[in-house]
Amino acid sequence: MKPVLCAAVALAALSTSALAAPKKPAIVPPPPPAARPTAGEWRTPDPNDVLVIDANKGRVVVEMVPEVAPLFVARMRELALAHFFDGQKFFRVIENFMDQTGDPQNTGTGGSDKPNVPAEFTFRRGADLPFVLAADQTVAEVGFVKSLPVMTQSWMLSAMTKDQKVAGWALYCPGVAGAARDSDPDSANSQFFLMRAGYPSLEKRYTAWGRVIAGQDVVKAIKVGEPVAEPMDRMERVRLLADLPEGERPKVRVIDPKSGWFKAEIERVRRMKGADFSACDIEIPSEVK
């Protein structure tokens, strides 16, 4: 991945009046959080869709979402089963952006011996996709596919399409996992990145294939640099949850986005954020034991 991505910073000028001091708005406390989820409001991810990254800074657990990026998820499974990622370093890490790894050369120029993976920047949302609505914006709908925040065209348009589906794409919120590439859209191979912060300009330009469901604090603790100075932080071991021996396999569960608890949490955050509401504001509770 060799993108040159710059975050634009907007500066706003503030004016004050010497004639009258503005009245302070009343402070409205945010709605209280919903009660703890009940046992039936959790789901257990498919262990073949869970990537366990043991880094020198700690453990990161990523839920892969083949519903939106089946080709790259298959590649990640294949390379994890081959122990390809073990020992690889986080060679490009940018604060308020992302951690990049997955290159055996640890430079950003290498990859696996497998063929490149075509772009999966968008997906088709059909009636069978496990999409949970978070906000209806009339022409578009914001929601979740498992733990991944997404946006799609309005479902009303599905009646007018040949395949009875609408276009969708992932939202690059903190924790989202993306496939690195060069200037060729179809050049993803083995390099990937984990988002330290939200970065909307990546949407519909880079394949998103999952999201961190535990260990985002580890993602943010990885040593920063472009390139990172030695010693770089590294992935000591990367495994599919299903491939771990029974005695080493953690028990993982994630809140079910179809649950009443999650719907109540969406409403709470919407009321708290108002017009500034974003799917990135929704926390995805998980437990890894």
From TrEMBL:
Location of the region described as Disordered in the Swiss-Prot/TrEMBL record: 25-46
Signal peptide limits: 1-20
Positions of transmembrane segments: none
Lineage top rank: taxon: Bacteria
Domain PPIase cyclophilin-type, chain residue ranges per copy: 47-223
GO molecular function annotation: peptidyl-prolyl cis-trans isomerase activity
PROSITE patterns: CSA_PPIASE_2
InterPro entries the UniProt entry points to: Cyclophilin-like_dom_sf (IPR029000), Cyclophilin-type_PPIase_dom (IPR002130), Cyclophilin_A-like (IPR044666)
Annotated Pfam families: Pro_isomerase
EC number(s) from the headed UniProt entry: 5.2.1.8
Keywords attached to this entry: Isomerase, Rotamase, Signal
UniProt-listed PANTHER family: PEPTIDYL-PROLYL CIS-TRANS ISOMERASE-RELATED (PTHR45625), PEPTIDYLPROLYL ISOMERASE DOMAIN AND WD REPEAT-CONTAINING PROTEIN 1 (PTHR45625:SF4)
Protein name: peptidylprolyl isomerase
Organism annotation: Phenylobacterium soli
